[in-house]
Amino acid sequence: MPKVNLSYEPTSDLTVYSTLSKGSRPGGVNLPIPLVPSARAPFISAARETGPSYLTSQPSYYAPDNIWSIEVGEKARFADRRFSVNADVYYVKWHNIQQLVVLSCGYPYNTNVGDAKTYGPELEMAAKVTDALTVDLSAAYTQAYISAPKDTPGLPITSGTRVTSIPKYTGNLAVSYESTLGQDYKMTFRVSESYVGPVYDTAFFPGNPGIVRLDGLQNGCG
Q1: Cα gap 151→129, rounded to integer Å
Q2: Pairing of the two strands 133-141 and 114-128
Q3: Which of 55, 150, 187, 214 is the most exposed place for a label (fewest CB within 10 A)?
Q4: How far apart are CA 76 and CA 15, in angstroms?
């Protein structure tokens, strides 16, 4: 896959760069889904389903998907390189994106749901407070949504639906302490905390969690 990376160093403590690249994932085959009544998963009650709940056919395979991505960023060092700031913004255009859909009976399958876009900023900071103590902080905001949904009858995905399994916010904070014990040993102590913001799980789409319509019928496997 093509990739172009350009960088420029106006000073020894500052680097600005830009990356343009393309990537892809192969398609695959879905596992068989039982198409008979009474195949409902034991944790799904009939009260949660509405209308017919029989899958008349199943997608046996899903196609490859691919992306074009562009990133622009900088890496800067200050105070004799005791303090650093790395920041970037990125934009990803996703074609024929693969998504995992979970049927109301509990069986999952993969399908291509259309085109998507992802973009946002990222920030990393590190400070060497003392020779032994270092503080690291990073954060990111990700906007990821379906921009042109595929015309699949009943698929609960519309323009603007968020891509599953991609958190909107993430953050990390870490404090590290390092000390030398004698000539041959080094002691390192690290404490960290991570934050993961809102995310749509693969089994929960907006509007009707865990329920997808295929072929004009309420899905299910029974």
Answers
A1: 55
A2: antiparallel
A3: 187
A4: 6
What torsion do the CA atoms of 206, 210, 212, 217 make, to the nearest 10 degrees?
-130
pTM of the full structure: 0.76
**pLDDT tens per residue across all 222 residues of the chain:** 799 999 999 999 999 999 999 999 999 998 877 655 544 444 344 444 433 334 456 668 899 999 999 999 999 999 999 999 999 999 999 999 998 877 766 777 788 989 999 999 999 999 999 989 999 999 999 999 999 998 765 566 788 889 988 999 999 999 999 988 877 888 999 999 999 998 877 554 444 444 444 443 344 455
Q: What is the DSSP letter of 162?
A: B
163 secondary structure, DSSP code: P
